[in-house]
């Protein structure tokens, strides 16, 4: 395997793990949406997928989980399902891509082993891109609904409105990095298969090259074969040893 492909797969794995941790933090963070009012300047509210929190300016924070699953808003339910599926698919892709790395001795060293490693890496990259899309969908959906509700003209201006939280930006970064990691793993598999256990080397057209280190070639009975004269060998031009023609 060449240095470029090995660098791409290692970079893809580092980005993959960082992106999956970003998606996990997005799922657990309660800062999906934030709300601050003019009536209570010392307090602000935060809304997450699993709990709501009240943050005070003095540094205190009190969180409370949701009482009922059926009473949740529709966007929170959708975000929960998509983020959990994204984490599961991303973890599965990560576990598939690790045995396919060039530095991991998980398969045989022959051509079949190289082909199996490539299949594992491609599967891990595809699952990584799928996990990135599944992470971007709920984050963008919640952000879209927040923008629509913020600029809703039917709601009076005195009513406080929810705004973007830190978890949305973390989710966008995690989803984008998952896509990049999948593309890097897929790009590392575009080169030819490297098989170091094939024996004699082949030329450009697939014919085996001659081994000149064995000395003269022999035939079936062990006798040395006659070597053909070289094509570029200069023939002798000395005609002094030739006999003149005899005339009758």
From TrEMBL:
Basic and acidic residues bias: start-end ranges: 230-248
An annotated GO cellular component: plasma membrane
Keyword line: Cell junction, Cell membrane, Membrane, Tight junction, Transmembrane, Transmembrane helix
Gene Ontology MF terms in the entry: structural molecule activity
InterPro entries in alphabetical order: Claudin, Claudin_CS, PMP22/EMP/MP20/Claudin
Positions in coiled-coil regions: none
Topology in membrane: Multi-pass membrane protein
Cellular compartments annotated: Cell junction, Tight junction; Cell membrane
UniProt keyword annotation of Kinase present: no
Pfam families per the UniProt record, alphabetical: PMP22_Claudin
Gene3D superfamilies referenced in this protein's UniProt entry, alphabetically: 1.20.140.150
Region feature Disordered, mapped onto this chain: 204-248
Listed transmembrane segments: 12-33, 78-104, 125-151, 171-194
Its biological purpose: Claudins function as major constituents of the tight junction complexes that regulate the permeability of epithelia.
Stated family: Belongs to the claudin family.
Name this protein carries in UniProt: Claudin
UniProt organism field: Salvelinus namaycush (Lake trout)
Lineage: Eukaryota, Metazoa, Chordata, Craniata, Vertebrata
Recorded name of the encoding gene: LOC120053573
């Amino acid at each position: 395997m060449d240095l470029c492909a090995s660098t791409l797969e290692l970079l893809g794995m580092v980005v993959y793990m960082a992106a999956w941790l970003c998606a996990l933090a997005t799922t657990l963070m309660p800062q999906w949406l934030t709300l601050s009012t003019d009536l209570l300047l010392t307090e602000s509210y935060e809304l997450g997928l699993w709990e709501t929190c009240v943050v005070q300016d003095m540094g205190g924070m009190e969180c409370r989980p949701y009482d009922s699953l059926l009473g949740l808003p529709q966007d929170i339910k959708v975000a929960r399902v998509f983020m959990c599926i994204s984490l599961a698919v991303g973890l599965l892709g990560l576990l598939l891509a690790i045995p396919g790395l060039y530095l991991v001795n998980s398969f045989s060293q022959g051509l079949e082993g190289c082909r199996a490693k490539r299949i594992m890496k491609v599967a891990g990259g595809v699952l990584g891109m799928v996990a990135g899309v599944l992470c971007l969908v709920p984050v963008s959906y919640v952000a879209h609904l927040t923008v629509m509700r913020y600029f809703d003209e039917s709601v009076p201006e005195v009513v406080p409105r929810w705004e973007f939280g830190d978890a949305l930006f973390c989710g966008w970064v995690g989803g984008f990095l998952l896509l990049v990691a999948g593309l890097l793993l897929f790009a590392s598999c575009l080169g030819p298969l490297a098989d170091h256990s094939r024996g004699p080397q082949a030329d450009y057209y697939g014919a085996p090259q001659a081994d000149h280190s064995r000395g003269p070639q022999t035939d079936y009975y062990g006798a040395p074969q006659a070597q053909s004269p070289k094509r570029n060998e200069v023939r002798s031009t000395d005609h002094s040893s030739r006999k003149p023609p005899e005339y009758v």
